[in-house]
From TrEMBL:
UniProt KW Hydrolase keyword: yes
EC number: 3.5.1.28
Pfam hit, one: SH3_3
Domain N-acetylmuramoyl-L-alanine amidase: 17-185
Gene3D superfamilies xref list: Peptidoglycan recognition protein-like, SH3 Domains
Single annotated GO MF: N-acetylmuramoyl-L-alanine amidase activity
Coiled-coil residues: none
InterPro entries tied to this protein: Amidase/PGRP_sf, Amidase_domain, NAMLAA_amidase_2, SH3-like_bac-type
Catalysed reactions listed for this entry: Hydrolyzes the link between N-acetylmuramoyl residues and L-amino acid residues in certain cell-wall glycopeptides
Protein name: N-acetylmuramoyl-L-alanine amidase
SUPFAM superfamilies: N-acetylmuramoyl-L-alanine amidase-like
The entry's keywords: Cell wall biogenesis/degradation, Hydrolase
């Protein structure tokens, strides 16, 4: 992908679907990328909403579950995705950030034994749901998973945006409006996403699986406490760094209901 005149193009030179939104302000210089979910299972509703002047809401991009991208404003024009928000001493992050919305039903409700998106009432199949505790909440809940295609497109776009605009960080709506918002939520792999987008280059290709059950610890050695129960065999991890025979990993799978577990495992139990 590439950016020309603040608009997004695919590698073959075609502009992504561009639907200019009326819900925008003036020019600005972005410093952050804010990730969101749409809280709906289909892109069409969010796209229509962002084109509706009464919505007073928008974002720069919506990325659908099949990876299709829609752009609503050039990246150097303020869109309205963050609302009342604070980060690093800044107020009102719309004026400082690019916003990407990923099509995802978000926090689901259990109805008649099924997980349902409360906004569009669509049933989400159980294998598309993780049960997890949001970092700002106390109880577990069902959350729609992001699709692999969607995440891989989002990482490519985020990496390009970070590089083009020299962005300082990738953050979630839940980080800048923690009392109002739960997106992108626990189904979003923020740690690895951020590492890749910010160009921690050892994070991109160092994908491994555990060859057997293995302990994950707070330090590089058996003398350190374990972080949670053993990781099962075939758990996917990314290796960030090595120390002797130990690897510091981020767990990519949801394990024991936890996301984004990070810790040390013995390197001999990691296989490609
Ligand atoms: Zn949001």
């Amino acid at each position: 992908m590439k950016i020309l005149n603040h608009l997004l193009y695919t590698d073959d030179g075609k502009q992504v679907s561009y639907r200019p939104t009326p819900n925008k302000a003036g020019k600005y210089t972005p410093s952050y990328l804010v990730m969101h979910y749409t809280a709906a299972t289909k892109a069409s509703g969010s796209i229509a909403w962002f084109l509706n002047p009464t919505a007073k809401a928008s974002a720069h991009l919506v990325i659908d579950r099949d990876g299709t991208i829609t752009q609503f404003a050039p990246f150097n024009i303020i869109t309205w995705h963050a609302g009342v928000s604070q980060w690093n001493g800044l107020n009102g992050l719309n004026s400082y950030s690019i916003g990407i919305e990923l099509v995802n039903g978000g926090k689901l409700a259990k109805q008649g034994g099924k997980w349902v998106c409360p906004v569009d009432k669509t049933t989400v199949s159980d294998d598309d749901v993780i049960i997890a505790k949001h970092k700002n909440e106390t109880a577990e809940n069902g959350w729609q998973e992001y699709s692999e295609k969607q995440l891989s497109v989002a990482i490519d776009v985020a990496t390009l945006l970070v590089k083009t605009y020299q962005l300082k960080d990738v953050i979630g709506h839940e980080d800048i409006a923690p009392f109002r918002k739960t997106d992108p939520g626990p189904a979003f792999p923020m740690t690895s996403f951020k590492a890749k987008a910010m160009g921690r280059k050892d994070a991109t290709l160092d994908l491994y699986k555990t060859s057997t059950q293995v302990n994950i610890r707070k330090g590089a050695g058996t003398q350190f406490e374990t972080i949670t129960d053993m990781l099962p065999a075939n758990t996917k991890v990314t290796v960030f760094k090595r120390e002797g025979t130990w690897s510091f990993v981020e767990v990519l799978d949801t394990v024991h209901g936890l996301n984004d577990i990070e810790g040390w495992v013995s390197s001999k139990y990691l296989v490609k």
